[in-house]
Design brief:
- The chain is mainly alpha-helical.
- The protein has one domain (about 45-499): Cytochrome p450.
- The strands form 4 sheets. The chain has a 3-stranded antiparallel sheet with strand order 3-9-8. A two-stranded antiparallel sheet has the order 1-2.
- It has helices at about 5-25, 30, 85-95, 120-130, 140-165, 170-190, 200-210, 215-220, 225-230, 235-255, 265-280, 290-320, 325-340, 345-350, 355-365, 400-405, 420-425, 445-465; strands at about 70-75, 75-80, 170, 370-375, 380, 390, 395, 465, 495-499.
- It contains 18 helices and 9 strands.
- α5 (about 140-165) runs parallel beside α18 (about 445-465).
- It is globular, with a radius of gyration of 24 Å.
Length: about 500
């Protein structure tokens, strides 16, 4: 037998061996008597067709009347998908002690920015969250409010000049530049000016962040130990180097020159100062390293600029399609601002209840992320069943599908802010709206996200009218290979008219 024949035989044997291992793994849910979606080699239940990640596993809901959870597979890894709101509430809130981890990929050696609060588990997560939570109190939001207003005024000026030249505006890039400048100022104390210069370095690296394929995130999540052995990164090295160096320079400059801005960077400095003074050392209470601080700043940047800009993009899109809702928002804005002598204040924003309902309806229909992910830290018997979620298993909570469940939200594809009137919210299950998660691991920055979004939309709707144009996709088509939900091509054109 020649070398080529031997090599071919070896490859065939290897493929057959791998296939048989997958087939064996794909029996996990069946042998336990759990309702499951039939997997396909080698992706499991990751669909071959081009749909956004948020729409994976939608077929699980056909078993809604039969079982509280359905089994699926990421590649060969079994994953539990809860479809009962009561079970979801147990996982996120009531029995949080059994699901306090996310099981996200953390590789502090090769990928230091992966060790941020969103990804961390166990006591380290608890310690970091406790230290960072003071950033997002109501008092801190009031302090940052004027900074966001300053940026939105520059945003207003930029848009006014743009539509003098061309009334059809690509709003995704524009809104991402706005939120980049907000985060740059509130988190780093840096005037980014990406509204004036689209190629400003913060904007450049903001775009780089989203260039990592969701399949890479799925792989490192499904096989974290293998990914660490392969020295895989979820964050590009050039992006990591930029953020680490930016944080180092910012902290050194402030400490040396005794500068305070009462922002996120000051909080990081204070945490380490307090650790030194209290003599903390061992364990999870020790002071944060430069890489630790950079990771938390990176999270603030990524979570703050892209999710908020995506929410504003889809809100403007729906308001362009629904002029009556747009006008109702505008009337409320003008009425409230008249009460405050035309001044955009923290109190004024809080009074714009219909605008808030409109934002929530946007988050219902277009949640930036499609799943909440938790990891069992101990065996968990599912209430009223014989099913056990085993220790170490990941749980994917399909919030996008919940937000589009016709039994919860009749005619779910219709954009209707009245769904979030106080009366209707009161009559729904508390887990029927999960845009910011729930329980102890809910989004710690939701106050900031809401404030930034309200300020941006209020200013836009007060000064401009938005309409569809020939370049506007109707119906909406989504970009397939992005973690954050986004229009296809990551572009959205709307016609903008000055009022």
């Amino acid at each position: 037998m020649d070398c080529l024949s031997i090599a071919c035989s070896a490859v065939i044997v290897l493929i057959t061996f791998v296939y048989l291992i997958f087939k064996w793994k794909y029996s996990y849910w069946k042998v336990r008597g759990v309702q499951y979606l039939e997997p396909s080699f080698p992706l499991g239940n990751i669909p071959f067709k081009k749909i956004h990640f948020s729409k994976y596993f939608v077929d699980a809901f056909k078993y809604k009347q039969q079982t509280p959870l359905v089994g699926v597979y990421l590649f060969a890894v079994p994953v539990a998908v809860p479809i009962s709101l009561d079970l979801i509430q147990s996982i996120l809130v009531k029995d949080f002690s059994s699901f306090h981890d996310r099981g996200a990929y953390v590789n502090e050696v090769d990928d230091p920015l992966s060790a941020h609060m969103f990804n961390l588990d166990g006591e380290k997560w608890k310690a970091v969250r406790t230290k960072l939570s003071p950033t997002f109190t109501s008092g801190k939001m009031k302090f940052m409010f004027s900074t966001v207003v300053e940026v939105v005024e520059r945003f207003n000026y930029t848009l006014a000049n743009l539509i003098k030249v061309e009334p059809e505006v690509e709003v995704i890039d524009l809104l991402e530049r706005f939120t980049t400048d907000v985060i740059g100022s509130c988190a780093f104390g840096i005037e980014c000016n990406s509204l004036e210069d689209p190629n400003f370095i913060f904007r450049y690296y903001g775009r780089k962040v989203s260039e990592v394929s969701p399949f890479r995130h799925l792989f490192v999540g499904a096989f974290p130990n293998l990914a660490r052995r392969l020295h895989m990164r979820a964050v590009r090295k050039d992006v990591a180097d930029f953020f680490i160096e930016t944080v180092r320079k910012t902290i050194d400059y402030r400490v040396k020159n005794h500068i305070r801005r009462n922002d996120f960077m000051d909080l990081l400095i204070d945490i380490n100062k307090d650790s030194d003074e209290s003599g903390e050392g061992a364990g999870t209470s020790k002071k944060l390293s430069l890489e630790d601080m950079a990771a938390q700043a990176f999270l603030f940047f990524v979570a703050g600029f892209e999710t908020s800009s995506a929410t504003m993009v889809f809100c403007l899109y729906e308001l362009a399609l629904n002029s009556d809702i747009q006008e109702k928002c505008r009337q409320e804005i003008n009425g409230v601002l008249t009460k405050y002598n035309g001044n955009l204040t923290y109190e004024a924003i809080k009074e714009m209840t219909y605008v808030d309902q409109t934002i929530k309806e946007t988050l219902r229909q277009y949640p930036p992320i499609g799943f909440l992910i938790r990891k069992a830290v101990r065996d968990y018997p599912v209430p009223d069943t014989k099913v056990v979620i085993k220790k170490g298993m990941e749980v994917f909570i399909p919030l996008h599908r919940i937000h589009h469940d016709p039994e919860i939200y009749p005619n779910p594809e219709k954009f209707d802010p009245d769904r979030f009137s106080p009366e209707k919210v009161k009559n729904r299950h508390t887990e029927s709206f999960l845009a910011f998660g729930d329980g102890p691991r809910h989004c710690v920055g939701q106050r900031f996200a809401k404030m930034q979004t309200r300020i941006g939309l209020t200013t836009l709707l007060k000064n401009y009218r938005f309409k569809t144009c020939e370049k506007t996709p109707v119906p909406m088509v989504f970009e397939t290979f992005r973690g954050i939900i986004s229009p296809k091509g990551s572009k959205l054109f709307l016609k903008v008219e000055r009022i």
